[in-house]
Design brief:
Elements (H helix, E strand, L loop, with lengths): L1 H27 L5 H15 L8 H18 L2 H9 L1 H24 L7 H6 L4 H8 L6 H26 L18 H21 L4 H16 L8 H16 L4 H36 L3 H8 L4 H9 L5 H34 L3
């Protein structure tokens, strides 16, 4: 038993080391969610080589709670006020992007290259981590959803960065670097952990679909906007949460799953670039008919991820408030409409493919 425990500790230590190196490498290229991606890739490599490691479900649930609080931090009242003043624009653009992603996902689902509702969730233009976490509760293969979502994030981010570089000069001051060890208010940190862990645990006990993410997010929004305190999420804590989520997903991959992902890669890439093209058309319409600056319109309609778009908007001469408001509205629409839409399309697909 001591030998087995020692070998297990060595294996976890090696996984942590490989994950750290990959995360640092990805951070050099400023890729979004570098820690999560690095840990997920490391987990995929270890799992594909037959290393028997698994993350306990309770740690995965608690990590979702922290991510829910992170999302709540971005949904402030001034963003919601901006949406209320121009709601027809936000609603129409959000519906168009969501309908386009659902239509492309439906085409992939009809071709039977991906199981269940995987294609619907894999192309959903919301926060990638949130879509991955919610998808498993609605009949999707979380491994392939993660593959599609993070591939979309990387491609969309690269295209948006290139567009921003070609269209405008970056004159804004660079964003401050993350302060890993900083805790401004210990009381706020304690309350944040209570919301994250308490909400996620309660949702798990009550078996609420997507609840470990959604319950802390809703509670966090109320706490952030209607109390004198603020959510406190130091970067070291978020990095631990990203690691738990990345390993939970990556360690589930098998050689067969990786081989399937490689086979469907061309079709997935075609769907992602089609979604980018549709969003660009919507941006052109927004710029022409509503007289928004072209880059502002493009970043606002860009199909995720919201975190990387926020960085690009903050370092470009655009209306960053409008961009983030549009991104948040679309994300909330995916959270609300994603589950019933995936069930409807899955039922329709099953009915069309079942012989009478």
């Amino acid at each position: 038993m001591p030998t087995l425990l020692l070998n297990s500790c060595k294996t976890w230590g090696f996984l942590a080391l490989v994950s750290l190196l990959l995360s640092l490498l990805l951070s050099v290229f400023d890729l979004p969610a570098g820690t999560l991606l690095g840990c997920m890739i490391a987990g995929m490599v270890f799992s594909a080589r037959g290393v028997p490691l698994r993350i306990q479900p309770r740690y995965f649930v608690l990590a979702q709670g922290l991510l829910g609080c992170l999302i709540a931090q971005t949904l402030e009242l001034h963003v919601l006020a901006k949406v209320a003043s121009d709601w027809p624009i936000f609603l129409s653009i959000g519906v168009c992007v969501l309908a386009s992603s659902a239509g492309l996902g439906w085409l992939l689902m009809r071709s039977n290259v991906l199981p269940g509702t995987t294609a619907i969730w894999g192309l959903a233009p919301g926060a990638a981590s949130a879509m991955v976490l919610m998808s498993e509760d609605y009949g999707a293969d979380v491994r392939l959803v993660a593959f599609m979502q993070y591939l979309r994030v990387v491609i969309v981010t690269a295209v948006a960065s290139l567009v921003a570089h070609l269209w405008v000069q970056h004159t804004a001051a660079p964003l401050p670097r993350a302060q890993w060890h900083l805790v401004l208010e210990p009381t706020n940190l304690g309350l944040t952990l209570l919301i994250a862990f308490g909400g996620a645990s309660a949702a798990r006990l009550l078996k609420i679909p997507g609840g470990p993410l959604l319950v802390p997010m809703i509670a966090g929004i109320a706490f952030q906007n209607w109390s004198t305190a603020q959510l406190e999420l130091p970067h070291w804590l978020l990095s631990v949460a990203y690691a738990m989520i990345g390993w939970s997903i990556g360690l589930r991959f098998s050689p067969a799953t990786l081989a399937h992902a490689w086979r469907v890669l061309p079709r997935v890439l075609a769907a992602i670039f089609a979604l980018i093209a549709i969003s660009a058309v919507l941006a052109a319409a927004l710029s022409y008919f509503v007289d928004f600056q072209p880059l502002t319109a493009y970043l606002a309609t860009s199909p995720g991820g919201a975190d990387s778009v926020a960085v690009i908007a903050a370092t470009s001469s655009v209306d960053a408030g409008f961009v983030m408001a549009m991104q948040m509205v679309r994300f909330l629409m995916v959270l609300v409409l994603g589950p019933p839409l995936s069930r409807f399309l899955a039922h329709k697909h099953h009915r069309n493919t079942t012989p009478p």
